[in-house]
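Could someone model manganese (II) ion with this protein?
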Amino acid sequence: MPSNGLHILVTNDDGVQAPGLLALKNGLLDLGEVTVLAPLRNWSASGHVKTMHKPLRVEEVMLADGTAALATDGAPSDAVALAFLGIVERKIDLVVAGINRGPNLGHDLTYSGTVTAAMEGTLSGAPSIAFSLASYSLEDFSAAAGFAERLVCTTWQHGLPANTLLNVNIPALPADEIKGVLVTRTGDRIYRDELIRRTDPRGTPYYWIGGPPPEGREDQGTDIWAVANGYISVTPIQLDLTAHSFLPTVEGWELTLDQD
Ligand code: MN
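Reply:
Sure, complex below.
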């Protein structure tokens, strides 16, 4: 199939009305048909969710440019599952999530609603890509959307192996200041979470997980280094979380059912 006849599912975790989703959708229109099915509200840092204990609703909403989209009260990964399970009738060729407001680097990946939405697409059998802009304030998604169109096209031409997806982070720079594209591995995030303890009007304590934004070890070759140094980072990631290098060690424990 030529890349201008694709059917692309677009979702996100910032909510269906987030400007990054609209920029992504409009950036992909030249490649074919784009269907939006995204959460109604912000689900950032919700991780990989499968809602099983309450019903899910899907409604039609209008985006800021007057076009129609589908929205659900479920999580980003629910939105992708709903699409593949029959809410979207036309066969979905690719799943594209984003453009997230804020980076998804290193250990952020399992927290990320953006990345886990793409993971759900991978589980559903479609090549899937997560896009994040490394800024919480920049309103200009044009550089990110332009790169998304090119990468989606290239990914469709080459395909992705089973259980493999792409996680993309774009530095918060104008297009002509981005230095290039690096294929990276995930780096080490350094979280600086702090417990914020407060008391409700009835005297019961409640808590926020607060603190400053995470930092990261800027090791060359990592996603964190690439974005910090002005490059777009493309990280191939896989659903296999097995620690292969540690397998022989655990085998060496010679675990048995016997007590001693
Ligand atoms: Mn988000």
